[in-house]
Amino acid sequence: MNDLIIKQGKLINGDLIDIVINDGKITAIGPAAAVGLPSIKEIDLHGHYYVSAGWIDAHTHCYPQSPLYYDDPDLIGAACGVTTVVDAGSTGADDIDDFYAVTRKAKTHVYAFLNIARTGICSQNELADLTRIDNIRLQDAVRRHKGFVIGLKARMSKSVVGKNGLQPLIKAKAMQKENRLPLMVHIGSPPPRLEEIADLLTKGDIITHCFNGKPNRILDEAGNLKLIIQRALARGVILDVGHGTESLSFSIAEQAIKFGAHPHMISSDIYQRNRVDGPVHSLATVMTKFLNMGLSPEYILNCVTINAANLLHLPRKGRLERGGDGDITIFDLKNQRIELVDAEGQIRIGTQQFIPIAAIIAGVHIVVAENAAAKNMSAENMPVKNSATGRRIINGIPL
Ligand SMILES: [Zn+2]
Predict the structure, then answer these.
(1) What's the pTM?
(2) 287 compared with 365, residue with greater pLDDT
(3) Which pLDDT score is estimated for 374?
(4) Which residues participate in the annotated binding site for Zn(2+)?
(5) Residue 378: pLDDT above 60?
(6) Is 25 exposed, middle or buried (CB count within 10 Å of its CB: 0-12, 13-18, 19+)?
(7) Which domains does the chain have, with CATH numbers?
(8) How far is the CA of 334 from the centre of ligand 1 (A)?
(9) Which terminus, N or C, of the chain has the lesser number of Cβ atoms within 10 Å?
(10) How far is ligand 1, taken at its centre, from the CA of residue 250, in Å?
(11) Could you read off the pLDDT of 123-171 as tens digits, one per residue?
């Protein structure tokens, strides 16, 4: 008896596949992999809905106790069709233990980029006081939470570093060398200038808020891709969207994409306020914005699956293959008009939309209630049933 079978899911290339999940892992996958197999739960998509590896949001804020940027991991994750979220520096060495404990109760997989400030983002200027960068405490926290802490985060903008300029980043690079973890660097208003920041970054380092419209944007005055960014990209530095409340400009992103500076990861920088009031709303909304800027559905899906998994060093995630984690996103790609707003209030009218329908997280099925209802797939007609009893299953709970 298998734990879960998904039948006739549609890949983005149109091929239909079955997926079999046991003990939270994909144990069989292929065009007719589930034919004749018994299972405790079965979801038959009849080729109507798409499946992909579970979506990974590489930049979020989901430490509920954080005073500034807080949210619940399941509200930004499972409830939005996202199976894995990465918190980008909400916590540091002082509160990572508490954050870890909170995340054990979440259905969504949660990982953390540890803030190089031991306090995390307890105030807007966590790196204005260099004594908060405590290497011994950081190393200890990384050791305690190996596998949960998957990177370091340094927020390098004027409001965060105060008068310290590049000093926090120089320290972050030194600490990163000892840990061999990816470093995510937030860019915003100078000082320090992007030119100085980018020069310190090496292969695998992540620039988040890469399409911000602030003075530290990646385009020069003439609208060309800054040479310093071209050099950084050639070295293997990663561009991550990190939309957030202030950090996605349609005009910058459109122009950068024209120059071939495509994002490697598409992330939301979501937290409660920009989820509820916008302009972020959800990872799917951010993905939809890039769809209407001309990136293909395949490219966008790669950004939130295989690219994110590879760049964040999560080898069993982001791919639909035997032995991979049983994390799947079921979604629709709908041709319909949608008004899209960036972080600067610019508006674009989109014609196609990613609509998450359900998340399967380590084999547990969670319906995206809002969209299931909007698509007339309420509790009664969501095509999920317990094949042993014939009962419907919603939110992983037999009804
Ligand atoms: Zn952030």
Answers:
(1) 0.93
(2) 287
(3) 53
(4) 59, 61, 153, 186, 209, 269
(5) no
(6) middle
(7) 2-51+356-374 (2.30.40.10), 54-319+336-349 (3.20.20.140)
(8) 29
(9) N
(10) 18
(11) 899 999 999 999 999 999 999 999 999 999 999 999 999 999 999 999 9
